[in-house]
Amino acid sequence: MSVRRSDRLIDMTRYFLERPHTLVTLSFFAERYDSAKSSISEDMAIIKRTFSNRGTGILETIPGAAGGALFIPTIQKNEAKTIIDDLIEQLSTADRILPGGYLYMSDLLSNPVVLKKVGRLIASEYAQQKVDAIMTVETKGIPIAQSVADYLGVPFIIVRHDSKITEGSTISVNYVSGSSAQIKKMELSKRSLQAGTRVLVVDDYMKGGGTLKGMQALINEFDAELIGTTVFAQGNFNGQRMIDNVTSLLNVDASRDEIQIQPGNYLTKVFD
Ligand SMILES: O=P(O)(O)OC[C@H]1C[C@H](OP(=O)(O)OP(=O)(O)O)[C@H](O)[C@@H]1O
């Protein structure tokens, strides 16, 4: 028995939201609801219009016999600004300042509600680009990478600071961590990244940029392709940063006793 439109629309919406950047064919839905493809096409048009009007994202329709649609999560500027302003308010307390110009953020970056918002913001910056994988370095970048990977519908890969038997053979690079002005090593399992993979690098924080530069060097070692680099926050850094063209949601100045947090360059890079 065919499923009525109101029920189809609810179930189709959930199905798309749970599978971002994944093509779902007309035939699949027609069979799932025992309905005509023409009815499913009309359903998709309703969802497409609602997603667009409510700022949920883009429902990209693919014509033809094997056609269908795929959901691309995006965010509208006013919603993005509200999220960033809320983060600034939550972080702007002096007791979060840590030695070396760092900020205590772990309570926020372990909060699923915050991580969903951060993942959606970062994924929206790359909504119209082909990204095959998200890369981050252990440890605090991992929850962010997982959330971005969820919104882009791709895997995430974790760079380690030392080799683990469980990772098999690895490729390593040395890098200068600007935060500690030390030569450090990072490495990645040879099995985790294929040549030509289009990689988005994310992390929780950038100071000198050496960590991000190290991940970019790893991407080159694997003959993969860097699509972009985005961090949750960038701190102030006295000296020449080792990397440029990084997007940050927040700009943190924690060098003195009081804390100054401003929006990073995300809003201007993504919406202007
Ligand atoms: O821009 P840089 O000067 O290189 O510093 C940014 C690094 C340092 C810090 O990681 P750590 O606190 O060292 O490591 P973990 O994430 O494991 O806590 C932060 O999470 C970035 O990865």
Automatic annotation (TrEMBL):
Designated name of the protein: Purine operon repressor, PurR
Domain Bacterial purine repressor N-terminal: 4-73
Quaternary structure (record): Homodimer.
Signal peptide, first to last residue: none
PANTHER family in alphabetical order: HYPOXANTHINE/GUANINE PHOSPHORIBOSYLTRANSFERASE, PUR OPERON REPRESSOR
Gene3D superfamilies to which the protein is assigned, alphabetical: 3.40.50.2020, Winged helix-like DNA-binding domain superfamily/Winged helix DNA-binding domain
One matching Pfam family: PuR_N
Domain Phosphoribosyltransferase intervals: 107-239
Protein's GO biological process: negative regulation of DNA-templated transcription; negative regulation of purine nucleobase metabolic process
SUPFAM superfamilies per the UniProt record, alphabetical: PRTase-like, Winged helix' DNA-binding domain
Keywords: DNA-binding, Transcription, Transcription regulation
Family indicated by similarity: Belongs to the purine/pyrimidine phosphoribosyltransferase family. PurR subfamily.
GO MF annotation list: DNA binding
